[in-house]
Amino acid sequence: MADADSSPPQEMASGSAPAPDDEAGERRKALRRKWLLRLGLAVALILIGWMLWYLLIGRNYISTDNAYVNAEMAQITPLVSAQVLEVNVRDTQAVKRDDILVRLDPSDARIAVAQAEADLAEARRKFRQTSATSTALSSQVRARAADIEQAQARLVTARADFEKARVDLQRRERLEGSGAISGEELTLARNAFATAQAALKEAEAEIAQARSTRAAAEGEFAANEALVLGSSEDSDPAVLAAKARLDSARLDLSRTVIRAPIDGVVTRRQVQVGQRVAQGAAIMTIVPVAQVYVDANFKEQQLRRVRMGMPARVVTDLYGGDVVYHGRVTGFSGGTGASMALIPAQNATGNWIKVVQRLPVRIELDPKELAAHPLRVGLSTEVEIDLSGG
Length: 390
Fold this sequence. Notes:
CATH class of the largest domain: Mainly Alpha
Helix content: 40-55%
Strand order of the largest sheet: 1-10-13-12-11-14
Largest sheet: 6 strands, antiparallel, barrel
Oligomer: single chain
Structural class: alpha+beta
């Protein structure tokens, strides 16, 4: 009986109360739905936050990590060929403008200066000589004019003598038939006439010769005067040319001392004492670390709204995010990096695939920040441009 009485309650309990496994499963499902709901809400909030951030802030900034420090470096090249006597700098050394970098042997340059000085003195002497010659030639012209006057006076005398001899001869020739004059006297008259005639022709020739001599003297004077007319010793062309050669020689002498053209740091020094350097050959480079800038290579679609003068923030791998440089956009390259490559890409084959191009953008940095945290050429940077600040 005990067994019969106890069996119905067990069946009732098993039919009315849920199993423990079912309750645990329901709790797990409810917890899963709760976490999925929370995750969905979190994702939605993140998406909404990102959209708000992009609409309000993010779309006004573009950035790239394809950016590097650059500078307008000064390449040091000797302007004269000579042997190196001194090298006063080494690689990594900081120099100031006008500091002496290298001294070259000045012997040849000094000889050239001495030769140029001698040429200048010779040119001055020749000008003074030419000026004195003009005075002498002017006196010769006046002397030739006096010779003409003397010849003209002799011509007058010769003409008078000729007329007298002609008249005497005619008178004696008229008396020849009457016997009033001897043959000897007639002969003497004829000889006197011939002599007077010859003297007249000689006087006429002397005038022609004197005039020719004066013309030659006037030509020499004019030619010599053309060399000095309107010029002084300092403005004479030959003197000026000699001065120019002397200035050139002195300039070459000064170029035997090579000085730093800018402030910066010496790099790639390629010169040693005793070496003979050639004119125009690079011997070192000076990098102006206080005037470096950043070349940021942005993708072409990023540059639609970029304008000159927009502010930029620059972070370098050298100092990390603790140091932020501030600068501005100051220029755009004339071509993309691919087009300016040594061997530009050629897409004439037919299997062309479009590649996004990058255009270098120059960012000038704040000099005070550069002075506090110097940079070197070639360092990697990250650049962010504020498109709303243009």
